[in-house]
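Hi everyone, sorry if this is the wrong subforum. Our group has a chain we'd like a structural model of before ordering constructs, and none of us has done structure prediction before. Sequence below.
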Amino acid sequence: MKKVMLKQYGDVDVLHMVEVKSPQPAAHQIVVKTAAIGVNDPDVVIRQNGPFPTMPAAIKPVLPHSLGEDFAGVVTAVGSAVSRFAVGDHVIGMAYMATYAEEILLDDSAIVATVPKNLDLVPLGGFYLGVATAYAATIRDGQVQAGQTVLIHGGAGGVGGQAIQLAKNAGDHVIATGSAKQAAYMQQLGADETIDYRSQDFTQLVQDVDLVVNLTGPKTLAASYPVVRPGGRVTSVNGLIDTAETKRRGITGIYSMGYLSVQELETVIALYSQGKLTVRVDRTYPFELEAIKQAHRDFQAGGNTGKKIIVFND
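Answer:
Right subforum, don't worry. Here is the predicted structure as tokens:
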């Protein structure tokens, strides 16, 4: 099978396609034929600079290694002790630094769940990481409740789009920041108000919100504390919380990590199946080296609206 590997970190030319043996499952493992994968921030950042300094040792990649997190595919082999999956199951999930490959080997205890076979696997290839991060920042750590007001920074990206939908499903009034070009898209997802971060100052337009979800950077996070009501919350996936500032203002701040339990994954799959969550596919790329390099270049260019998806042959 074909697999993308890194032997060093740097620009897109450090990506190499190699031929390796197809994996064979042990007793408690499954093999998934990859249908589609998402292009995500960790892929680009790690490819450029190596592992994040804060990564736990258990998941910190060591060269040479591959890339990729979320995926969709079809189970093609199961180990003798596997009962949760069967050959032919359509599945989605998380396989850290392992999805840039035509086949993925996973333990049957991995964060993987089946999806209805009538669902298109292409958008689902970019579903997990965005919804996991959004779920953590909005539901698990954000603790949104019906009737609250939520400000989401970066509402048009893969994570932001899911955060808007999750907040609306929870019954909240949603304000989202993005560019003027992205306003209509954010409104389609359910944003009640949009703010153009390039021409408008959100600190002059918003006050006393129940939750701020920061998906952009430290500068935006620092400016967000004053718009949260006393007793409110701010979550961040990009920029560490200033604990002295949150304590001074009487608010709760949490740095959110994007993961889902299998049960949580099944919950969001149900919402997706019911049409309550969607994935906008911004662009697809074939699983070919030059196309993958272009996907990274396009992601790095910024202004992403929806997901960039790498699609494998049938």
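For your construct planning: Residues 2-127+279-311 form a domain with the Quinone Oxidoreductase; Chain A, domain 1 fold (CATH 3.90.180.10). The first helix runs from residue 41 to 49.
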